[in-house]
Every structure is written in structure tokens, then in C-alpha cells.
Amino acid sequence: MTNRPEVPDLTRAAQYLRMSSDVQRYSTENQQNAIAEYAQKHGYKIVASYRDAGKSGLSLKGREALRQLLSDALSPRRPFDAILVLDVSRWGRFQNPDQAGHYEFLCRQAGVPVIYCGEPFENDVVPATTIVKHLKRVMASEYSRELSAKVCRAHRQQALLGFRQGGSLTYGFRRLLVDASRNPRQILNAGQRKALSSDKVVIVPGPSEELAVIRRIFRLFVQQKLSVAEIARRLSKKGIPGYGGKPLGHQAVRHILSCELCIGQMTYNVTTTRLQAPSKKNPEELWARFAAFKPVVSIRQFKKAQQRLAQLPVRWDKQSIAASLRTLLAEKGRLTELIINQSENAPCHETVVNHYGSLDAAYAAIGYVPEFKQQFGMNGKFWGEKALFAGLQKIHAANGFVSNRLIDSCAYLPSAAFVRRRFGTLSEATRRAGLPIVPHSQTQKRAWKQRRAAGCDELYQGVRWTKEELARALRKLHRKAGYLTANVINQNEAAPSADYYCKRFGSLDNARRFADIPVPTHSERMLAACKRKRDGKPTIGRRRRHPDQRIGLHYRSDDILAGLKSLVQKKGVISALLINAEPSLPSADCVINHFGSLREAYRLAGIVALKGKLVRFGLPLQEMSEKTS
Q1: Which CA distances in Å does 501 have to 83, 453, 519, 533?
Q2: pTM of the complete model
Q3: What region does 615 belong to: left with phi over 0, alpha with psi -120 to 50, or beta?
Q4: Residue 413 DSSP label
Q5: pLDDT per residue over 322-378, tens digit each?
Q6: By the 8 A CB rule, do 339 and 327 touch?
Q7: Which residue among 152, 528, 559, 586 has its CA within the 20 to 30 Å range from the CA of 413?
Q8: Which residues contact 113 (CB under 8 A, 6 or more apart)?
């Protein structure tokens, strides 16, 4: 018997692969092959791969694979004992070489050395290796700096020749693909790019309709002195779409007013962003300008627009907002949302709300107390707090609680919406009236008890089901299918849904026991399902009755629509109160969850808004006349 030679254990290793751009198609495959050769020669076994495709090595930003690799390397239950990288530049071209050394030190301290397979130095910590490795890191970062300078210089040279160098496109203009001799090829749509490196892209004016909108924007801003926000609101009200079908918002209008393409001049190198550093504005003498086409607006009008834009603050903070509001208050004597929006030297009210949370908080910050306005309710009647509190106390004394529905049905109080507007919430109104605040859970339980007492639980699709009838339908379904599951119940039209059975009996197993149907264990159900599948018997899976139906809801959308139409035929009109009072329908909130809003549910059910009545819906005139006859 001969002894086999002992095979040394291979060291588990993870390989890290990175390429800077998607154009480097085979870069990661070449790295992987080189690492595989090194691993085979030096006794490593690749057990994990971490790949950052199309990611820059300047920082950790966007390099999810390297982040995960560092996290796994520091974990006590890591699946590898070494990290293999092709060279120092693949680990990263960090502009601070110590950053790359820091990440490598973390791995080495955790017992996971980082090994560079394609470098000439040894993977140890002797002084010579450390010096060479640091020089390699400096060279990798310097390569990025030199390449960035060369690319920026080349882009600026191309811009001076009139060729576009990327960036977002302004509304009213299009990109035209041309060949090396500037012969036009085609208009590039959004997302399209040139295929040949010899081709170039130039900017041309867009459709005449969009150019007319640009002229209108300058006219409103320069001649009529409208603010940028007001111009955006007018364009949105007119339904004028922006580039790509998006609305022309505040930022888009401001960008149009400051874009030199409107005077036929293509401008480049206004700002610079290099090596993932923050963007900075360049001096005007470094800008690259090229006269591309005839001006869309006059140069005189464009200069006036720039003068107005220069007077507007670019960025708002709390201090500048407060100062502008104080100036506006001294000028107008009061502050309102309309006054703030119409002012040229103040931000719009949305900006104020974003910084302070509300207009009232902004007013308090500058020491302004708005004039108190009396709150009027229905029919223009003024409601004092004493009268409101007395009405709430009267409702509580009669019913033991206060709710929106009771307030709306009360003849001696305004609407519940008015009470909420006056005090903020209904709970605050009841608290100030000296009444106990009922938790939301108790309110829900009370509503459930009322619906249960009204017999709502016994109704399904407008039909009252007793427990004996439910058990009879369940036994019939069990005899027909041979087994009983939630999917079998849901796909059968002769019985209510499985959710309704759970609602009536507590669970499907309780329903089976009540109907004297054997209750299998979970393992027995799984074995029976596998046997049916092996035997080729048809299985009933979960599926929708129609494309818009949501799975797992207690009420089907088509059933709700049928119930809404039945209700409006019976009552003549429909509202949230009538829906909540109808036992055969879910609550109005449930209808909103199904369809997004009550208006959408009414539309799908063929219910229209009645003329001459505010927010009142009913049957169309033709159907109403047929019902009357």
C-alpha cells in the first residue's frame, strides 16, 4: 500500500475587481484571469468575488463591493483569509494615499492581508516594500490628476470649436449629431448618444412653439416684472409642458433666463468639478464661448434679465429669509402668503415653510403677530368658542362620546371640518371643551361594535350569511375539490372569500371544525399538495379576478363598485356619510384605499357630480329620469 503525497491546504481568498467605466468591457475578466494564475501558483483558493464595474477609484462613493469587502473582512465569521487585488490602482486612486493605506491596515489588523498580484514588490511589511507601495499609491493618484487636466483641456478646446461637451439640455433647444465635416446626421433624443468617436454634437434651436415660450418668459420677467415663481405658475396653469413632458418649474424658468443659448451663444467651463471635488465657478475669462446660431431673444433684453437675476438672492437660509420678511413687513405693514409670493425680494412661501416648518413659525421668529380673523362657519355665521364648546358638551352628554359623524349630523354645530380647522384637531377641541380624550383604539373598537351590532359582519356582497349556510357551502366545496384551502375558497363564486370565513369564525381551521371537516396539520397539507402536483392534478393558485383587484383585501373592487351604484340608486345621492352608514358596504376609508379617492370610485361606478350642488354626487340625468319613471 502506497501513501499518497499530502496536498497542502489552500488559503481561502477573496478577489476584488474594479474598472473605471463601462467602456472597459473586458477589464474585469483580464483582472480575474491574472488573479487566478497568481492564486494557482501561490496556493490560494478563490472563494468570493467582489466586483465594482464602472466605478471610479477616487473615493469609496458608489463602490458598494469594496464597502462590503471591508465589512466582511472585519467580521469574525468571514469566509476568506486573504484579499487578492491585481495592482495598487485597482484598490483605489485615492487622492490622499494614506486613505488607501488606512483601508489596507484595517484588513491586515483583522488578520486579512491585502495581496497585490501584479506588483513587483513582495507582499510583506519590510521598509522597502512599504516605500515602493506608497510611491505606487502616489503615482496612481497622480495619474488621475494628470488625466483630469488633459480631459478638461480637450473638452474646452472642443467647446471653442462649437461642439457640445455634455450636460443637461435647456428647454427650447436640441442636440444635432454631425460628422467630422459638420454635415448633419440626426437629432438626438433624450438618452441617445453618439456611436462613433469621430462624430460630434452641436446645439440647434428647437421647435418654434418652445422658442415662443422662451420669448414669453423673458417678456414676463423683464417687461412685466413678474417673479420667477409667478411665471412658473402661469405656464403651469396654461398647461405648457417642459422638456421631456415635465412641467416648467421654478428652477427650469430660472435656468432659461440665465442660459446664454437664448442669445445663440454656447458657453462652456462656467463651473468645474474635478476629482469628485465640490463644484466651483470659474472666472469669466476662462469660459469658452461660441456663436452657434442667431439669438432667440435680443441681447439687450437678455442683459436686463441678468441684471434682475443678479438682484435676486441665490440661496436662502433662515437669517436671509428673516431679513427679507422684516423688510417686506416694514414695506407692506402686514404679511400674508399672497404678499410673500408676489414680492421680488423675498422667497416664495414654500421656501419659508421648508426652513421654518410653517408661516406662523416664521412670523414668530421675526416677532410678527398676524391680525386675528374671526372664524366663520356654515352660512357665514360666526361661531364663538363658547358656543362650540357648549355644542360639543351637549353631544357628549347625549352619546357618551364625540365623533366627526355626530358633529356633521348635528343641527346646532358647524361641520366637523370647521371644528378641526378652528382648533387643529378634534382631540384638541374636546380637550379645550373639558371633555375626556378618547384614544384612537377605543374609537375603532366602538365603530366595530356598532357595525357588528347592525349585523354588518353577517353581510357579504349584500347577502346575509348564517353560520350554518357558511358551513354548508364549505362542505359542498370540500366534496367538489377533495381538499380545502384559502385559494380554493377565493376562486369559487358560490361561497364568500376566505377572509370572510376568518372574520366570522376566527380562522379557517375553526370554520372546518364547525362544518365537521377534518383539520389537517401543516405537514399533511404540504404532503397532499406535493402529491397532487406529482399526479398532474390541476392546482388552484392565488390569482386576481380582474387586473385591478388587490389580493388579500376583505372586499373586492368590483363588489364595492356594484354596492356604490346600488346605494346611489336607492338614495338618489351619495356621500362618505351614506357609505359609512350602509351595512353592505365597507367604510369610506376602505373605498379610498381601494381606488385612491372617492371621486375615482364614483367615476368607475358611473356616478357623476350633480349640477347646482357643491360636492354632491348622484346618478346621471338619464338614469335618474328612468328611475323616476
Answers
A1: 58, 18, 15, 27
A2: 0.44
A3: left
A4: S
A5: 888 998 888 888 888 888 877 877 887 778 888 888 888 889 888 888 876 554 454
A6: no
A7: 586
A8: 82, 83, 107, 123
